[in-house]
Amino acid sequence: MKVALVHDWFSANGGSEKVVAQFIDMFDDIDVFALVDFFTEEDRFVILQGKRAHTTFIQKLPFAKSNYRSYLPLFPIAIEQFDFTGYDLVISSSSAIAKGVLTKVGQPHVCYCHTPMRYAWDFYHLYLEQNGLKGMGLKSYFVRRSLHNIRMWDYASSQRVDHFIANSNYIAKRIEKTYGRKAKVIYPPVATNTFKLVEKKEDFYLTVCRLVPYKKVEIIAEAFSVMPNKTLIIIGEGPELNRIKRFKGKNIQILGYQPQEKLNWYMENAKAFIFAAEEDFGIAPIEAQACGTPVIAFQSGGTLETVVDGVTGCFFDEQTPQSLVSAIDELESRYDS
User: What is the pTM of this model?
Assistant: First the structure.
């Protein structure tokens, strides 16, 4: 069987890329496609087994490596240029654009959907606010118009998919609300066997994620800025790095990218792992629990399916520093009791 695997883009090694790695392991004859492929050689080896993705014209546009998302209005026409003639099965790994590929009658298209496109649907108003686009200026109009067109295309392209798979019950509900489609839930793979259970913890808190707005790392940093006696370690890279750096201090360390061996050590030894996003599934909280590290998570999204309140962690009900501080106090009271 000849298989085509389509991913949105390859720029960082995150949770969705780990799903891609599993798909590549499953099939002997599989080719990979994406809007752009800017993987490091290390990530290419780990995720793509050394393969290079077939890419679109966006790969060669100016500044694409550092700012490919600015070409969002071109994404639909770019992804539709892939020709899958000769493939028996098309699999898309999609949180944005990959599911929009064109396939033929009798050519099954299965979409593993990590989330419907966030900034076109659920996070539309948040995206405008965080980018200073809530007003009615010319730039705001252009962005709103572009996102409206993307939203219309996104819904239309969802009807091209033959079978949807969701990574959580939470995402299955969003797929049904957004696209009017039913989805089978298959949780993503988590390599829990690569972590060690450590019972005696160090005295620091940890968060690990891509530093993008919806991860809400700024909330975590702000909470610890008013708790100078507690140490926070932030691991990750992304466009929000400079915003987060303003909180850097004696008790807040920003380590950026860390190799897997060091990352595992921090996961295994942290007093608790903090997760402030309304996440689709959330692989990092699973990894933390595999180490015996309790999770303090925002009470929404996929973590409600994986964190057991009062057993493997606790929740906070608002994405505010104050709510997080209260949850940390609650967890520490359990430590002391």
Answer: 0.87
The low-confidence residues of the chain, meaning pLDDT below 50, are none
Which segments of the chain belong to CATH 3.40.50.2000?
Answer: 192-336
Q: What is the reported pLDDT for 336?
A: 65
Please state which CATH class domain 3-185 belongs to.
alpha beta
Q: 52-82 pLDDT, tens per residue? A: 999 999 999 999 999 999 999 999 999 999 9
Write down the pLDDT at residue 327.
96
Q: Looking at domain 192-336, does it have CATH number 1.10.3720.10?
A: no
By CB neighbour count within 10 A (0-12 exposed, 13-18 middle, 19+ buried), where does 301 fall? buried
